[in-house]
Amino acid sequence: MAVILITGGARSGKSKRAETRTRAFPGQPVYVATAEALDAEMDARIAKHRARRGTDWIEREVPLDLVSALVATDGGGARLVDCLTLWLSNLMHAERDWDREVTELAAALPHLASPVVFVTNEVGLGIVPDNALARSFRDAAGIMNQTIAATADEVEFVVAGLPMKLK
Amino acid sequence: MAVILITGGARSGKSKRAETRTRAFPGQPVYVATAEALDAEMDARIAKHRARRGTDWIEREVPLDLVSALVATDGGGARLVDCLTLWLSNLMHAERDWDREVTELAAALPHLASPVVFVTNEVGLGIVPDNALARSFRDAAGIMNQTIAATADEVEFVVAGLPMKLK
Amino acid sequence: MAVILITGGARSGKSKRAETRTRAFPGQPVYVATAEALDAEMDARIAKHRARRGTDWIEREVPLDLVSALVATDGGGARLVDCLTLWLSNLMHAERDWDREVTELAAALPHLASPVVFVTNEVGLGIVPDNALARSFRDAAGIMNQTIAATADEVEFVVAGLPMKLK
């Protein structure tokens, strides 16, 4: 078992780095997309990611039930979960108890046999947002990132496509 | 004398890291809160921080006069100042000369006997804010962080709860 | 030939660091400003930067045609380009094909004889901006930073005035 967390800003090269780390494990890689193609902007981004990573991935769309998906795909190749911040946003929109779900995810990780590579975003390094919802989200994202980082075997922070090893 | 600066984004684990560093010094630790409990959101955050760090701290509320507070509490255990960005915000709201006060703080640090651990925020890594006040604040925060970092013995940048050594 | 990319947040000490790196090369340094003095806020910032770096620099204002300017000033001292994110913003306002221009810049770098030190900004580490234009800009800035970082010989990330070596 190996759990790797790749964090960074928007368009920092996180996904590409995570793909490289995922492909380095043996077996057919599994792409766990937390995005749903709900608008044209998101459609275009999903298509671009797919074009880059190639067609040899097993693909799963998992907006909410991440732990079940990781259990269901366990035993094969490494899973790339892209990305945790979108999963968190989905949980909040669905009015699920994100705090409990993050804790359950962290608790489930040590019991998995196949590797998991998570992509997440750093969203707390700008000016305090004006609206309370955005503040809640960045607080939640920070807590989630700390929680998963504490459990992960490796954590990398990507800036301008270049990884810094945090753990 | 030891001066340590812990910087990072919102909910990055800065305060927890700073508590660990402060407790590692001998003597009863002193918590210097720059926050004032002015609304429910702030109340809740203060209560949460207090619950985590325990009740064995001497507590001081110091929204503005930080240098005096550090001189007054000198000679005992290490001081944890949480946080400099809120102090800066308080100075600006009170229409004090923040630039001069930051310079005076940096100048006072080498004359203190007991350690000081500062928490601060990185706020300049997002998109340029629309309003001029927010731009002024992030400029001021960046200048303050550079000034204190230049004087500090150690500087750490915390991401997802994990410190990177900058100095 | 040496290409150095200095990245970081607003008021992180990037420009100062880049000046130090540029001055370390032999010859008269060339300051390539991508800023145009269009308003009082920008005027003040330009004047402050100029006061700090001294008067022994050759100065060029290059809001758009960066590759030509680097070719035209080649063969002398090192060039400091401050900064790439403003250049990108200028290209977008002028409705030029920024993607192609960034690719051309990266392709031109290995053919230059004199060193180039670039300053750029990390703008993708805050909350997702509300407006589509800001989102496009931060995506473009991230892609540009990755592209130039991939070509650069050295990349540094500056936080609180302190550089971390990324490459």
UniProtKB/TrEMBL annotation, chains A, B, C:
Pathway: Cofactor biosynthesis; adenosylcobalamin biosynthesis; adenosylcobalamin from cob(II)yrinate a,c-diamide: step 6/7; Cofactor biosynthesis; adenosylcobalamin biosynthesis; adenosylcobalamin from cob(II)yrinate a,c-diamide: step 5/7
GO terms assigned for molecular function: adenosylcobinamide kinase activity; ATP binding; cobinamide phosphate guanylyltransferase activity; GTP binding
EC number, as in UniProt: 2.7.1.156, 2.7.7.62
InterPro entries registered for this protein in UniProt: CobU/CobP, P-loop_NTPase
Binding residues annotated for GTP, in chain numbering: 8-15, 33-35, 50-53, 61, 82
Catalytic site: H49
PANTHER family registered for this protein in UniProt: BIFUNCTIONAL ADENOSYLCOBALAMIN BIOSYNTHESIS PROTEIN COBU (PTHR34848:SF1), PTHR34848
Protein name per UniProt: Bifunctional adenosylcobalamin biosynthesis protein
